[in-house]
Amino acid sequence: MAGYSGTKEDYLKRLRRIEGQVRGIARMVDEDTYCIDILTQVSAVTKALQAVSLGLVEDHLSHCVVDAARASDEAGEEKVREAADAIARLVRS
Amino acid sequence: MAGYSGTKEDYLKRLRRIEGQVRGIARMVDEDTYCIDILTQVSAVTKALQAVSLGLVEDHLSHCVVDAARASDEAGEEKVREAADAIARLVRS
Amino acid sequence: MAGYSGTKEDYLKRLRRIEGQVRGIARMVDEDTYCIDILTQVSAVTKALQAVSLGLVEDHLSHCVVDAARASDEAGEEKVREAADAIARLVRS
Amino acid sequence: MAGYSGTKEDYLKRLRRIEGQVRGIARMVDEDTYCIDILTQVSAVTKALQAVSLGLVEDHLSHCVVDAARASDEAGEEKVREAADAIARLVRS
Questions:
Q1: Which of C8, C39, C78 to mutate against chain D (most D CBs within 10 Å)?
Q2: Is C91 on the interface with B (CB under 8 A)?
Q3: Using CB atoms, which residue from B18, B35, B93 is nearest to A59?
Q4: Do residues A64 and B39 lie in contact, with contact meaning Cβ atoms separated by under 8 Å?
Q5: CB contact under 8 A, B50 and C92
Q6: Which of C43, C49, C54 to mutate to probe the B interface, most B CBs <10 Å?
Q7: What are the coiled-coil residue ranges (chains A, B, C, D) (predicted)?
Q8: Which of chain C's residues have a Cβ under 8 Å away from the Cβ of B84?
Q9: Would you state the pLDDT for residue D93?
């Protein structure tokens, strides 16, 4: 089971809102809205997605990494390495 | 008229794809997919949104800023300031 | 001549401060400071460098891009393309 | 003791190189180097600082978080929360 199930409804709600925001940006493009206003909206969606990522990282550390650290040295190391790679992709995206 | 109308269809296609990817992430959460795999997908969507932003910035510079620079000193300065603010929001998001 | 000479002293002052902050981080590492405190300091330096970049982008748009837009279509396009590439590197770094 | 001492020399070497690069950027500004070339150099330094941060995060997870997870639930939770906050600052910087 994944580490975020306690707040699953919350993630689903946030992702549905983001989906609606992306649809709103498409509508702005379709209606020839001024570029700067579209850019502002794209930045807002990017920030919302980042907040989802940061929540997932924290949930992952709290559950999967902590559990693995308790199970064995090897399991802990493997999960830390995997989490660090995901964090690196996040920082670089 | 906005500065990106020549490639409007291209932006709409990319935004529809991003909308579908966000819906896919919601599905992954709903099916308890492993957090790291969801994070990878969220990073991909963030990168796709960034590419849209960078395209909009370039279109804006090519059309609105260049036209304003030719119209008058004040118009040029105003558009440069506005573009610089949008770029700052983008870099910080 | 570069587009930022009016505020050259300001940039030099900020860069000297950043250099001192990087030296401070090395000292923190050398003295085995707690990792989280070092991370906070590295984030502060990254933000300061970003502010320098955003200032340079705005100066570049105000001077080089605006001048090129007035000189000719080709010169304008070339400078816009070059600026857009630099902004993309900035957003992705 | 901090979680990165095994590779302390490596961090110090990287930070000294970054300090030299920042000094190089100041020299470029002083010599009126073309803005785009300075921006490229600033992006390189930002990336180098990010790599230092990501190394520190991984070291922190491997040592402090793993040790705390084994010590007690409360200690684990506290370190995870602190690490998540530092990662959020990093992603937003």
A1: C39
A2: yes
A3: B35
A4: no
A5: yes
A6: C54
A7: none
A8: 54, 57-58, 61
A9: 79
How far is CA C78 from each of CA A17, B78, C66, rounded to the nearest angstrom? 39, 21, 12
Residue C4: its pLDDT value, please?
64
In this predicted model, what pLDDT tens digit does every residue of D31-86 receive, in sequence order? 999 999 999 999 999 999 999 999 999 999 999 999 999 999 999 999 999 999 99
Report CA-CA distances (Å) from A29 to A42, B23, C54, C88.
11, 20, 26, 21
> With contacts defined as CB-CB under 8 Å, which chain A residues touch B5?
32
If 0-12 CB within 10 Å is exposed, 13-18 middle and 19+ buried, where does residue A75 land?
A: middle
In D9-68, the residues whose Cβ lies within 8 Å of chain A are: 50, 53-54, 57-58, 61-62, 65-66
Quick count: other Cβ atoms within 10 Å of Cβ D89?
A: 17
Q: State yes or no: pLDDT of C81 exceeds 60.
A: yes
Q: Is the pLDDT of residue A22 over 50?
A: yes
Residue C78 has pLDDT above 90, yes or no: yes
pLDDT for A42 equals 96
What is the model's pLDDT at position A1? Answer: 43
* Residue D40 amino acid letter: T
Task: Identify the structural domains of chain C with CATH numbers, from first to last.
Answer: 5-92 (1.20.58.1000)
